[in-house]
Amino acid sequence: MSTEYEAVIGLEIHVQLSTRTKMFCGCELSFGDDPNVHTCPVCLAHPGVLPVPNETAVRYALQIGAALDCELAPESTFDRKNYFYPDNPKAYQITQAAKPFCANGNLGGVRIHHAHLEEDAAKTIHTGGGGRIKGSDASLVDFNRGGTPLVEIVTEPDLRSGAQVREWGQLLRATIKQLGVSDVNMEEGSLRCDANISVRPAGSDVLGTKTELKNMNSFRFIERGIEAEIARQKEVVSSGSEVVQETLHFDPSTGELHSLRSKEEAHDYRYLPEPDLVPIVPTQAMLDEARESLPELPAARAERYEALGVQEGAALLLSFETDWAGFFEGVLAADDSIEPRVAANWVTGEFAAELRKQDDQPLADARVTPEALATLVGLVGSKKISHGAGKTVLEEMVASGADPEAVVADKGLEQISDSGELEKIVIQAIEDNPKPAEQVRSGNEKAIGALVGAVMKATQGRADGGEVNRLLRQHLGL
Amino acid sequence: MIEREQVLHVARLSRLRLGDEELDTLAGELSSILDHVDKLAEVDIEGVEPTSHVVPLENVLRPDEPRPSLERDVALSQAPDPEDGAFRVPSPQAEA
Amino acid sequence: MADLQLLAASGSETAARIASGNVSAGEVLDFWLERAAGDPLNGYLWHADAEAARTGVSADGGALSGVPLAIKDIFCTEGVPTTAASKILGGYVPPYTATSVARTAAAGLPMLGKTNMDEFAMGSSNENSAYGPCLNPWDAERVPGGSSGGSAAVVAGGLAPWALGTDTGGSIRQPAGFCGIVGLKPTYGAISRFGMIAFASSLDQCGPLTRDVTDAALLLGILQGRDEMDSTSVGIEGGVSAPSAERLDGMTFGVPRGLIGEGMEAGVLARFEETLIRICELGGEIVDIELPHAGHAISAYYVLAPAEASTNLSRYDGVRYGLRASDEDLLSMYEVTREEGFGPEVKRRIMLGTYALSSGYYDAYYGRAQRVRTRIVEDFDKAFGLVDFVVTPTSPTVAFKLGEKTTDPWSMYLSDIFTVPISLAGVPAISIPAGLAEPDGGGPELPVGFQIAAPAFGEQKLLEASYALEQAIGFDGSPGLEGGSP
Ligand SMILES: [Mg+2]
Ligand SMILES: [Zn+2]
User: Fold this and answer.
1) pLDDT tens digits, A349-380
2) C320:A268 CB<8 A
3) Active-site residue C347, yes or no?
4) Does residue B24 belong to any structural domain of this protein?
5) Residues in a beta bridge with C391
6) Which residue of the set C86, C148, C171, C478 is catalytic?
7) Cα A339 off chain centre by
8) Which fold has domain C2-254+385-473?
9) Which one of the ligands is nearest to A45 CA?
10) Phi and psi (nearest 5°) for B24?
11) pTM summary value
12) Are residues A374 and A427 in the same domain?
């Protein structure tokens, strides 16, 4: 008898805030500048310096808390987390342990344990040994990033699979992006995700020993890494062994997991209240501002779209990307007779595909306006042109920004509405393609596709698919 | 009373490479200090909130406005081992 | 030029002479630079030349312009070595200046030099300096007290008209008492801590060491104020002005009798009781009070201060500045650098603090000590509900001999028994000279300090009372002020 195992996953997400200056000093934030050009005595932890918190970072943290439906603490304090590492200049990180800003939230059904404000570490570059710690002879420390404000979001262990983590992670990213408080760019490290993973017999409520999967730079890699780690743990547990608590790194190029610090000394962070800072007691005005500044967030928007009849998949796609949602709403606004479901399918389907096909154009650079797309959808909807012709028109619109009606007129794409003319073409197609015609007659209905294709080709897609089908079946005696 | 082993553990946490003799001396000194400190157990602290601050302040925040950073040469001027505009440190490998 | 008038003058008197044209600021600076250069006490760790002394100093700073100041080597000074008397900061030259130093420079006070101290302000005798002990100007075989021993010694020894120090558990008041000068620890938060090398952040305060109470008030007036670089700075509402009270009518002085007596020298006790009588003569009233938890203050302090210190001193790691004693691998860089860079007392406190915060011990030590601190704060709140001031001797003894207490840390810690409770409560206190006394066991007479504490931000009242008492006591003279070498 074999036991069924389930995975239990909790996430720790670090979000770099897009303030102008660092968390506790006035150095400007930067990305990609020369090393150590954004430092001062405070962020280099010179003797005698003191931290002063960034007002905007506090505001952003409260906004994130509000967006994650958290309780916002009436009083919040900072703590010191002590550990020695060259990227940690004070040898303590100022973070929040006892009284974080935000607790007990929920996003998309995943509970948020808490979210707190802290400062980022500096960057170390390992020299020699090909840039990896292993085999390197030295490290170079660049303090430009050191002290960047971070909000760390810690979930409850409510996730069960890599795919779920990817989907939820995308929702979280879209939510924070919408707030405008972070670039949430995983490749540049402004969004970083660690996963705590364990397995247990399905239905059990005991937590197994967890491993920590560190810092992957895309949600797809996270998904794959988590799946790989779940598989590994299931194997370990079903063979009767025990999972060892360790920190792992997933190499997406090989699909392998590596232990980062196997002999890691048990951490003892010796937290203590940060005596250099006073409590933050958010005023009613600060709390109101955090809540009122919330735009419509992706989860709520997806719900609203679904209520309009948009299919779930399209609703989610649109909600996660503000500019796509804006485009979609522009289409609806241009022509209120268009069904939202149909508009959403055009925007997320044909239109998105065409942009990808033509040099992967970003939406922001697209030459097609929502109004023009609305016109196109209207032409198809009213059967002025066929769906196939619609795609041809769209191709031209994306390429040149042309007006859809002009393209239709130019190319003579107007649907063949004279059924006598269409009937002639159908009869011709049956004659020209005796083989599929015979197959259909002898019961293989699927073979009709070849005949539909022939008609469409002959009409350059100007025929209505339903009508073509009806006429073909009629003439084939079905 | 604090055991030698414990002193060694605390020295590791503190990143102090104590010599053997120093370790023994410290074990004795710390034990004797802790004997005095342990008298704190006599104080009734039932229901008492901890004090980490005596300043009557809250919400001391800084506007998010840039201030000049140090010139890089100045930032690196005190570094024991500057290299390529950065602070060079030996490999962490041996610590792993 | 041995200008005896300049030597004996207080800061305010010198300022008045400069203002009246009696002497030029340049002459004053030259005089004091020469005095400081002849330092026989190891009071200075760094001496300014005329140019360095004037760097950044406002030419038009106001009433005290031109009176040079000695600065404890715990304050960061841009371009000037700053070591906190530690080997780990040997050769360190900060890229910025402490707010307090910037304020005195803006007020026109040139910097004479950086004064000796106990390493990272940890000690009560100045024997914990990596650069050798500083000597007491009254008796070169005795300590000046600590940790601001250098600042106290140079003022008492005629090597500076006044000085800046810092006080965490008594580090201004105790050496001021031992050296026969005035030392003021303001309310926590009255003066910015920015640029002051941290020992125990929730306790550290900057303050003046001066010849008289008036000078203490004038320097405090320059130093106090909210600083946007220090989140915990408050400033003193309404500022501070020179005191002028002659009487103590209507003022009540609480004496915590339960704390006084045991372990005290007879001479110190005698000067204390005499001073209480003077208070009555001036119209003040003496009231017995209780500070039920003050007896636990040293224990609480030696958990809290080392705990904060252990994390404050973690930044000395050999990465960005200061000593790096090994390059072998990362762990060696940390461990060897810190082992070689810190002296024994600093290591003792780092170890003690790390232990008190470590997993499994936090509640028993740090958490408990914080709660005992709350009790002590409550004790003072209650006391100040009954009286205007709390008075004690500054220290249980006069200055002790070099080496006398170095083998038993706890006995050294006990020399701060009267100063530490006040530090934990965060309230202001001053030590003024109450006369001389023979040490137990005999020998030449040495200064005795009288400590007066007031409610938080009650500095002006504290200075008024201290001034009236100072005039009545009429303590005069210091061994260094008669000219020649101290
Ligand atoms: Mg964190
Ligand atoms: Zn900075």
Assistant:
1) 999 999 999 988 889 889 999 999 999 999 99
2) no
3) no
4) yes
5) C452
6) C171
7) 27
8) Amidase signature (AS) enzymes (3.90.1300)
9) 2
10) -65, -45
11) 0.89
12) no
